[in-house]
Design a protein that fits this description.
The complex is a heterodimer of chains A (255) and B (398).
Chain A: H1 2-25, H2 41-49, H3 55-70, E1 76-80, H4 86-95, E2 98-102, H5 106-114, E3 119-120, H6 124-127, E4 136-141, H7 151-161, E5 162-170, H8 175-184, H9 208-217, E6 220-229, E7 232-235, E8 246-253
Parallel strand pairs in A: 1-2, 1-4, 2-3, 4-5
Antiparallel strand pairs in A: 5-8, 6-7, 6-8
Helix pairs in contact in A: 1-8, 2-3, 3-4
Chain B: E1 26-30, E2 36-37, E3 43-44, E4 47-54, E5 64-68, E6 103-104, E7 109-110, E8 115-119, E9 134-135, E10 140-141, H1 151-164, E11 172-176, H2 178-189, E12 196-200, H3 208-222, H4 239-253, H5 256-262, H6 283-296, H7 301-313, H8 316-321, H9 325-329, E13 335-341, H10 349-361, E14 366-371, H11 379-382, H12 384-396
Parallel strand pairs in B: 5-8, 5-11, 6-7, 11-12, 12-13, 13-14
Antiparallel strand pairs in B: 1-4, 2-3, 4-8, 9-10
Classes of the chains: A alpha/beta (255), B alpha/beta (398).
Chain lengths: 255, 398
């Protein structure tokens, strides 16, 4: 049995390697020069954060890095589920951004306040209706959509209140997750999904392809998309579903 | 925790390094040449103002925090009054100022950093001109001839004093309940002077229920046999009426949960009832009685009428947005934090949220926290730890 698993694993690795090369090859299609694709993620992060070491921090902060590169100075930004406020705090301090955050967890909201972030300590689904149409330049939903009861309702509100939206999530289409479930027969556990089936907050898991399908069907334009794969950040397309561990999308509603 | 379950308020004696120490009330005579024109159309002058300050005013006069007191509060926010003057102030003996837990060296409102100013409001009975003051025209107490005052008048009053002190900008205005209404009004009326607003347990208006409670309080004072249309200063005061007003108000400051926890249905010092209609049977009754007794010794019934009326009239949506709170909210420039408490039914979380929602709509960044608490409206004074933490964080990032 274990031999069979090794064989399948090797086959997956081969698929992963070839798909990964494709992704790098097609990288120029949605190129954004600010993200240095040749440097390893760890190098980039070590430079940017003075040595973030835990997998959680790396996983979380590569997206911050991409967002910090993409948001123009002095924008008006809404960060939904801001956590400890690291990202918006930096956007406010370094980029002159005017920020509003929403964070339901009291301890995290307190940490965000300490970062100088104006934060509404309310469930985001209760507060989005308060904002007026197109009132933000960017609305950010980082690694949260898979935890929402009504993700589509929140996405619709985001596209209403923001001129542009940024959405990121762990990709359940990644080969290792498929492997864990199909061969291992257990719900996958990984650095970006460090939960058991009974305590996971991820109740609406999705894949890259699922998300892109939804965008297409709902007149939502993907201006850019990046993925984390094997420690590297690169622009991604739908072909990268198998190799992308986490994905971040820059969206806009087509009017 | 104290025996009744409330967190013990840590009292810092005057020689404690975190106490502002002994304090002296300051006095200023304002509107000496030009009369103070009030919202009600009334005019008054000169106005004597009592205020206290803690900390050092910076060279550029840019480190000022204005603290606004609540309905029955005074300018004595922190430290110890060495010699309380007059019968109404005797309650201060052996007690620090009403927000001593928050104000002092190294405390949430850090007097090593900030110059803290607290002013007694017009119409009150603690040193600023009010109905119990002598009207210079008649040499008798104003009584009901004192003009009706509003929260807006108080904002102008405080700015008049700040002008006298040469203070043109405020790092923050902070207050709870009626003081929170004041903080909001300051942010609206003086957007270019107020950099931060900390609004605790307060909203842009009182609720309809709030209006009703205030009406009952005033009714009981006005219909006290001793009221005499407010001219009671030479004879017996309408203290029975004031006692009822306080007892009822006290109920609105607590919650069923906190009352149940503190008193429940326990009998007062006995195992079985005495079957009396007029005596004290329950702990709850005893508590209210005690509250009323100590309150009537320290408050002027006329001031109670004037200040509750000012709270009633306050409606920031009407005043600044022709009824539209979103228009009002768009006028706020200050960094703002609104704090409500889950069990507060006098200024309930839903009401505080209205202001926050309006600010969201008007693209004003705002911080809002609804603190889980069982202490009702009193929570803003009782939940010291949580409030301290929030204020500290807010002021850290000014």
């Amino acid at each position: 049995m274990s031999q069979a698993i090794d064989k399948i694993k090797a086959a997956f690795d081969a698929v992963k390697a070839s798909a990964s090369n494709d992704a790098v090859a097609s990288g120029g299609a949605i190129a954004h020069g600010a993200v240095d694709l040749n440097k390893s993620l760890l190098e980039v992060l070590t430079k940017a954060y003075g040595g973030a070491t835990t997998s959680y921090e790396i996983w979380y902060r590569w997206q911050d890095r991409v967002i910090l590169d993409q948001i123009p100075r002095n924008s008006y930004v809404l960060d939904l589920g801001c956590g400890d406020g690291q990202l918006l705090g930096r956007l406010i301090k370094e980029m002159g951004v005017t920020g509003q955050a929403v964070e339901v967890d009291p301890a995290a909201a307190m940490a965000a306040m300490d970062m100088g972030v104006p934060v509404l300590n309310i469930d985001l689904s209760e507060v989005l209706g308060d904002f007026s149409d197109q009132s933000f330049d960017y609305v950010i939903l980082e690694s949260t959509i898979q935890t929402l009861k009504d993700p589509i309702g929140v996405l619709a509100q985001m596209l209403r209140v923001g001129k542009k939206s940024i959405v990121s999530f762990p990709n359940f289409g990644h080969w290792r997750i498929r492997f864990d479930l199909s061969i291992g027969g257990r719900m996958p556990i990984s650095p970006s999904l460090p939960y058991q089936w009974y305590d996971t907050p991820n109740i609406r898991v999705l894949t890259l392809t699922d998300f892109m399908d939804w965008c297409r069907a709902n007149q939502v334009k993907v201006n850019a998309a990046y993925g984390l794969s094997g420690g590297n950040i690169s622009p991604i397309t739908e072909q990268d579903n198998l190799v992308t561990e986490e994905a971040i999308f820059f969206l806009e509603k087509i009017c | 925790m104290s025996i009744d379950g409330e967190p013990l308020k840590e009292m810092h004696p005057p020689d404690h390094p975190q106490s502002v120490g002994w304090t002296t009330a300051k006095k200023a005579a304002l509107f000496t040449e030009k009369l103070f024109e009030l919202d009600s159309g009334g005019k008054i002058g000169p106005v004597e103002m009592e205020y206290e300050t803690y900390g050092e005013l910076s060279h550029n006069k840019d480190n000022v925090i204005l603290v606004c007191h609540a309905l029955t509060g005074d300018a004595h926010a922190a430290g110890w009054d060495p010699d309380p003057q007059g019968p109404l102030r005797q309650y201060r003996r052996n007690k620090p100022g009403w927000w001593d837990s928050m104000i002092g060296p190294g405390k949430a409102i850090d007097t090593d950093r900030f110059y803290v100013v607290c002013v007694n409001v017009l119409g009150s009975c603690y040193g600023t001109t009010g109905p119990s003051s002598i009207n210079p025209a008649t040499s008798r107490p104003w009584g009901m001839s004192f003009p009706v005052v509003t929260v807006g008048d108080w904002a102008r009053q405080q700015v008049e004093l700040l002008d006298l002190l040469g203070v043109t900008s405020l790092k923050a205005v902070v207050g709870g309940s009626m003081g929170g209404q004041m903080a909001l009004e300051m942010a609206l009326a003086y957007p270019d002077r107020v950099e931060g607003a900390i609004i605790l347990s307060a909203g842009h208006r009182v609720t309809t229920q709030g209006l009703a409670f205030n009406a009952v309080g005033r009714h009981s004072i006005i219909h006290d046999a001793n009221f005499n249309n407010g001219n009671y200063y030479d004879s017996r005061r309408p203290l029975a009426g004031l006692a009822v007003a306080r007892m009822m108000a006290q109920i609105t400051y607590l919650s069923e949960e906190s009352m149940g926890f503190k008193f429940g249905r326990r009998l007062r010092g006995k195992q079985s009832p005495d079957f009396t209609l007029t005596g004290i049977e329950f702990e709850m009754e005893s508590y209210l009685n005690h509250q009323a007794e100590s309150f009537v010794k320290r408050y002027d019934p006329n001031s109670y009428l004037y200040l509750t009326r000012a709270m009633d009239y306050y409606d920031a949506a009407e005043q600044w947005g022709q009824g539209d709170l979103r228009v009002t909210a768009s006028k706020i420039k200050a960094r703002t934090i609104v704090v409500s408490f889950t069990s507060d039914w006098l200024f309930p979380p839903e009401l505080c949220r209205e202001l926050v929602s309006a600010m969201c709509y008007a693209r004003r960044p705002v911080t809002y926290v609804n603190i889980p608490s069982k202490y009702g409206h009193d929570a803003f004074l009782v939940e010291t730890e949580a409030v301290m933490r929030l204020i500290k964080s807010f002021l850290k990032n000014d």
